[in-house]
Q: What sequence folds into this?
């Protein structure tokens, strides 16, 4: 399964998990890592940074190319995954386990604007044609 | 809508798909970029044996009396270095301004037959240019592009052993081929050349024969490799890529290719006068990123003598660091540190000689394996 049903998604291929305390865990999708190939460098945002929706806030680089990661909603970064920064290949191995950062959304309701798994699936299929 | 049908395909296209390749549009060709992990494919070539479909490149035959004399004027390296049948020469083909139209491998087969392999993206303009020059100076020479041929590169320390196992009887015919030499065996043109910095062969054959040949090598344990690994291998090996490290706007003398330009002999060639009158202000150097990140083409390089630019950059799987080729002002020497602009930051990179890697070994002190 490459698009877990319990996650939210962005059109720019980030996945978002809404935790029970309302914080968000963010990573890039299986589809995104498949397009990029072998990951060799990750730069996640530092804790405390304030993000606006859609802001470039992290970078993933594969052997092939560099790609920006965008803030799914507005909010504040609460943690960066230093483990994935030191082992970028973890994203290739399991994109949904290798989260990049956690954030506290400015408005909890903003996550409702994100795509659900079915909508993201459609988007990926549309891009393939 | 699928654009696949608009792309050109090599005779191995269906087999690549069967083998699970991720296909990309590579200059109008539908080519495998990888079959899984590009880094694993890279390591397979450094440690064992990998296969590359390079059928998008074009062999062109030059036949007739006076071919050698025609090529003396056409290319920047000196074809008089080719005296033994089968010997190959790397050369640039220049325009009148001394810019690089393409880089080529020229094989001398006999005085009436030279074969030149040109790049895929430049093939049409190359043929047009070569034909126009031929019409002017040597109209009797026949120029025949061979789209009927497939080309497979078998590369790595075990390339010879895999080739011999896959192609019964080939050992006796190929084991004496020295580096940068070729032999014709039946319908196969077997050259001990490559673009990886490892031992290996580039083999041209009728397109129909290519899938069986590829599958036979896979059966012997050779690893199918895409163009992604080909790029990191050639970068580690310090080999230029046309269109990135040099092009029609660049002089070979500022592209790390002075060793391929023969300015010593009396011989005249297209672009020679321009090269002799052009100032040389830049040189190619290797860079090794000291910080974390990845060097990429077009990033700016700041040196004590002014700005330069990265022409090719990537992550080196062998060194486990980012490396690059960069065009920088003269006067910058190996061992010095320069700064590279990556997004909004300036990161430190060490200037080095290249190649970075040869025959599986790092040539960089204190880096990698």
A:
């Amino acid at each position: 399964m490459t698009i877990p049903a319990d996650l939210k998604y962005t059109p720019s291929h980030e996945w978002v998990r809404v935790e029970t305390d309302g914080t968000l865990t963010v990573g890039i999708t299986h589809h995104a890592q498949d397009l990029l190939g072998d990951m060799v460098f990750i730069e996640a945002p530092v804790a405390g940074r304030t993000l606006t929706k859609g802001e470039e806030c992290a970078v993933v680089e594969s052997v092939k190319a560099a790609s920006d990661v965008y803030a799914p909603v507005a909010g504040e970064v609460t943690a960066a995954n230093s483990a994935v920064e030191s082992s970028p290949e973890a994203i290739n191995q399991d994109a949904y386990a290798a989260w990049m950062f956690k954030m506290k959304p400015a408005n909890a309701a903003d996550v409702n604007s994100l795509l659900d798994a079915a909508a993201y699936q459609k988007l990926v299929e549309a891009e393939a044609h | 809508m699928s654009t696949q049908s608009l792309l050109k395909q090599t005779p191995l296209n269906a087999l690549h798909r069967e083998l699970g390749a991720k296909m990309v549009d590579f200059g109008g060709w539908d080519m495998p970029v990888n079959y899984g992990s590009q880094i694993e494919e890279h390591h397979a070539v450094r440690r064992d044996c990998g296969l590359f479909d390079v059928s998008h490149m074009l062999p062109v035959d030059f036949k007739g009396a006076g071919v050698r004399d025609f090529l003396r004027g056409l290319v920047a390296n000196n074809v008089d270095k080719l005296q033994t049948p089968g010997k190959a020469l790397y050369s640039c083909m220049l325009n009148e301004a001394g810019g690089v139209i393409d880089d080529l491998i020229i094989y001398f087969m006999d005085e009436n037959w030279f074969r030149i392999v040109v790049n895929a993206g430049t093939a049409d303009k190359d043929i047009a240019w070569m034909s126009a020059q031929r019409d002017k100076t040597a109209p009797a020479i026949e120029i025949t592009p061979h789209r009927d041929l497939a080309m497979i590169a078998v590369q790595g320390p075990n390339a010879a052993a895999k080739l011999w196992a896959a192609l019964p009887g080939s050992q006796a015919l190929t084991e004496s081929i020295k580096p940068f030499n070729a032999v014709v065996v039946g319908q196969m043109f077997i050259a001990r050349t490559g673009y990886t910095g490892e031992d290996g062969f580039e083999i041209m054959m009728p397109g129909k024969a290519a899938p069986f040949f590829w599958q036979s090598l896979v059966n012997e344990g050779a690893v199918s490799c895409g163009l992604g690994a080909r790029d990191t291998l050639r970068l580690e090996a310090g080999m230029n890529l046309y269109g990135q490290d040099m092009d029609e706007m660049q002089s070979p003398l500022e592209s790390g290719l002075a060793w391929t330009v023969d300015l010593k002999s009396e011989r005249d060639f297209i672009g020679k006068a321009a090269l002799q009158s052009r100032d040389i202000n830049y040189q190619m150097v290797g860079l090794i990123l000291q910080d974390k990140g990845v060097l990429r083409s077009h990033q700016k390089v700041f040196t004590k003598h002014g700005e330069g630019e990265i022409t090719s950059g990537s992550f080196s799987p062998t060194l486990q660091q980012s490396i690059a080729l960069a065009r920088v002002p003269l006067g910058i020497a190996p061992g010095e540190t320069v700064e590279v602009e990556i997004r909004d930051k300036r990161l430190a990179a060490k200037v080095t000689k290249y190649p970075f890697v040869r025959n599986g070994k790092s040539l960089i002190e204190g880096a990698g394996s």
Summary: The interface with chain A takes residues 1-2, 22, 33-34, 37-39, 228, 232, 292-294, 296, 314-315, 317, 322, 343 of chain B (CB under 8 Å). The first helix of chain B runs from residue 13 to 18. The two ends of chain B are 46 Å apart (CA to CA). The mean pLDDT of chain B is 96.
